[in-house]
Design goal:
The chain is mainly alpha-helical. It contains six helices and no strands. It has two domains: 70 residues; 48 residues. It is rod-shaped and about 100 Å long.
Length: 152
């Protein structure tokens, strides 16, 4: 039983006790005791209220659990993120061995990327579409476009 359901249960019991006290106090002022039928009806109404509050508490607990699970799960990978192989290569270069890792694009390949990005950008194609078409990360496209703007 979760903390919220326990709290709701205790709260319902307190409310029921208060209702009984007020019914008995009202009966004393009228000088008559409530009938068994009236008490049975009161208990049934209380039972219905408790069942309804338990359902609400259960639904709330389920929603909170789903939100907690959603927050704790890792976000889905986005296409703009760097691939794991590229991350490993960047780490190798950052460690200071000074050599570019194997499979690093050549100067000619980089220039070809820049030419393709420039051509598409000058045609008025948005940066995200350029990134998707050429299968290169969005930050790289933005860097190339910024460099083009600075050179113009």
């Amino acid at each position: 039983m979760t903390g919220w359901i326990a709290f709701q249960f205790v709260f319902d019991i307190i409310i029921f006790a208060l209702v009984i006290v007020f019914v008995l106090r009202e009966a004393k002022t009228k000088k008559s005791m409530p009938t068994t039928e009236e008490l049975h009806q009161l208990v049934q109404e209380f039972k219905d209220a408790v069942e309804k509050s338990e359902k609400v508490a259960h639904d709330l607990d389920t929603q909170l659990r789903h939100r907690k699970d959603a927050l704790s799960s890792p976000p889905p990978p986005s296409p703009a993120r760097t691939a794991p192989r590229e991350q490993m290569e960047m780490k190798a270069v950052a460690k200071g061995d000074g050599r570019p890792p194997q499979g690093t694009p050549s100067h000619e390949m980089i220039e070809e990327h820049k030419r393709k990005v420039a051509a598409l950008y000058r045609q008025g194609i948005p940066k995200d579409e350029i990134s998707r078409r050429l299968a290169i990360p969005m930050p790289e496209v933005e860097l190339i476009v910024t460099m083009l703007s600075a050179n113009d």
